[in-house]
Design goal:
397 residues, alpha/beta, 6-stranded parallel beta sheet
């Protein structure tokens, strides 16, 4: 199978870019010929605002270049990842004109929410699900800009009206059942959405001895719940604890809340670390904390923890609530409730044997569901279904 990957890279590489690169390597390791059509948001620096807005709704550059890729590379299938803002939905039309099926991974909620996270003023917002998202303009949901929000709403309205998302995408990949249900409520055809989680490759065998403290890895932002984690840490620090100096939370990452994080976590704020360093630090931790205020479509960092044999303390909503089995592979707390998170942290610190047991269960969960090999078979099955579906043939057995 020859596969063309289409992805609009972000200004600062994040989890989605890493997932795309991992899938490219996975497909090539299994003998597929893979070409990559990649545009990068750095292009925006040399474009006018009008040009960027126009490209968001329909990119003629993408349309022509995808046609050229199809003519020369002749892919059996195109797998789309991020298309915002430069690739645009013109990708789907170019593929459709060549009768090449497109599989689109739904990494975020952009197709049903202009802001992409179903979050407004730090709280979950589902006001636009199943509706024309005009509220996104009046509320300036995207980057606090009514104009930029209007561009996204125009894109969504235009391509809903002309049937792009319903008729020109052969299959969608949702990263969790929770996400799938949200997209169905938002109007995507249920029969086209399949669930396939992300995967990670375990680099080290877990060793459950000599572990201490917790760890956070990710963007230091409100949507990731860093303000909640900061307040929870303050509560923990105020509690009497004769061994407090030995029990800590390391914080890894960068972002808008870097200064308050450093003020509270002091030397345990480690800033940016390489993937190998993060892996070693995870292996040395009792638990990972994923306190997201927004709905996560999945929760890749939680699976990275599972691969290290580390249980996860996470918000009880979105993809994280689906991923973590409360009391088995980790602990769930009320989203946004710093006191509840603090209670879970204190319990985890006080019950090291139970946390080791949860860590072993988390590693078993990883082996059963989130390895590269397991993921490849799921992805290949989706591809096999998408090709005959686009051509009007019976599904593969």
């Amino acid at each position: 199978m020859k596969i063309l990957i289409a992805h609009n890279s972000y200004q600062h590489q994040g989890g989605e870019d890493a997932v795309v690169n991992a899938e490219i390597e996975l497909l090539r390791n299994h003998g597929h010929e893979v070409a990559v059509y990649r545009r990068h948001n750095r292009e925006i620096d040399s474009m006018s605002r009008i040009a960027v807005a126009g490209s968001t709704v329909w990119s003629q550059k993408t349309y022509k270049e995808i046609e050229q890729f199809c003519d020369h590379f002749q892919p059996d299938l195109i797998h789309g990842h991020n298309t915002f803002p430069l690739i645009s939905p013109s990708l789907y039309w170019a593929a459709s004109c060549r009768k090449i099926p497109v599989v689109q991974t739904l990494h975020n909620f952009r197709l049903i929410c202009p802001q992409a996270m179903l979050l407004r003023e730090g709280k979950i917002c589902e006001d636009c699900i199943g509706k024309l998202p005009w509220r996104g303009i009046t509320r300036s949901c995207y980057r606090d800009s009514a104009i930029q929000s209007g561009v996204i709403v125009s894109m969504l309205a235009t391509h809903r009206a002309i049937g792009t998302y319903r008729n020109h995408v052969a299959a969608y990949i949702a990263l969790s059942e929770f996400s799938r249900e949200k997209f169905i409520a938002g109007g995507l055809p249920a029969e086209k959405i399949q669930v396939k989680p992300n995967f990670v490759e375990a680099k080290l065998e877990p060793n459950w001895s000599m572990r201490d403290g917790g760890i956070f890895v990710g963007r230091l932002s409100f949507e990731k719940g860093l303000d909640v984690l900061i307040e929870a840490e303050k509560i923990c620090q105020s509690l009497p604890d004769q061994n407090k100096n030995e029990k800590f939370i390391r914080v890894i990452g960068g972002g808008a809340l870097e200064e308050p994080v450093q003020n509270v976590f002091k030397n345990n704020y480690l800033g940016y670390r390489t993937p190998d360093e993060v892996c070693k630090l995870m292996h040395a931790s009792q638990f990972l904390i994923a306190p997201s205020t927004c709905y996560e479509t999945f929760g890749l960092v939680a699976v990275e923890a599972y691969a290290c044999g580390v249980p996860v303390i996470a918000s009880r909503h979105g993809g994280l609530a689906e991923l973590i089995k409360d009391g088995i592979t980790g602990l769930l707390f009320t989203p946004g409730d710093a006191a509840d998170l603090a209670r879970k942290i204190v319990w985890a610190r006080s019950h090291p044997e139970q946390m080791v047991k949860m860590g072993r269960a988390a590693y078993t969960e990883y082996l059963n569901k989130y390895t590269p090999e397991r993921n490849y078979h799921m992805l290949h099955a989706i591809y096999q279904d998408a090709i005959p579906a686009m051509r009007g043939e019976p599904h593969a057995a």
